[in-house]
Write a structure and sequence with these properties.
This protein is mainly α and 159 residues long. The chain has a domain at 23-129. 43% of the residues lie in helices and 3% in strands. It is built from six helices and two strands; from the N terminus they run ααααααββ. Strand 1 and strand 2 form a beta hairpin. Helix 1 runs antiparallel to helix 2 and helix 1 packs antiparallel against helix 5. The radius of gyration is 22 Å and the shape is elongated.
Length: 159
């Protein structure tokens, strides 16, 4: 049906490109575990994955056998922004849990807040961002490589 003077209504605006939030698997998995009351599995998995992701995001390699203390002291640098500070907070939550301190705090909200802060810098969240070619409606997710077995919980020890 025409409008005044015989003109048709302009077509409604259409969405050309959607912006979707980046889903970071370790955050999703940690939330799931915390919701189930599995704090131990949540913090263990988080520490292991964060160490792997820091290496991938910043192009560093932690030598086999490094402890978390070594990673904090010698593996992080100024080019990482606040990542070393938040990693230190994550380790502060992890060490009492790992060594069975009787007063170990198990604060799920704090664990989740530290993880969200660790993945806030661009190099960290970009590990999981979708890659779109200009003008393409198809999106493919860059798969995360499997964790490096040399950096698993047996090699990166607490200390």
């Amino acid at each position: 049906m025409g409008r005044w003077f015989g003109r048709d209504a302009p077509p409604p605006p259409s969405v050309i490109e959607r912006v979707e939030p980046v889903e970071i698997p370790i955050l999703t998995e940690t939330k799931r575990r915390l919701h189930r009351g599995e704090y131990d599995a949540a913090i263990r998995g988080a520490v292991d994955q964060v160490v792997v992701d820091i290496q991938r995001a910043y192009g560093v390699e932690f030598p086999e056998g490094w402890t978390l203390g070594d990673v904090l002291r010698d593996g992080t640098g100024k080019g990482m922004g606040h990542v070393p500070d938040f990693l230190e907070r994550l380790v502060a939550l992890y060490v009492p849990w790992r060594y069975g301190a009787p007063d170990a705090r198990r604060d799920p909200a704090e664990l989740l807040a530290v993880l969200q802060s660790l993945y806030a810098p661009r190099p960290m969240w970009q590990l999981y961002a979708e890659i779109r070619s200009p003008g393409s409606a198809d999106a493919t997710t860059t798969p995360a490589p499997p964790p490096d077995p040399r950096i698993g919980p047996r090699q990166v020890t607490e200390g």
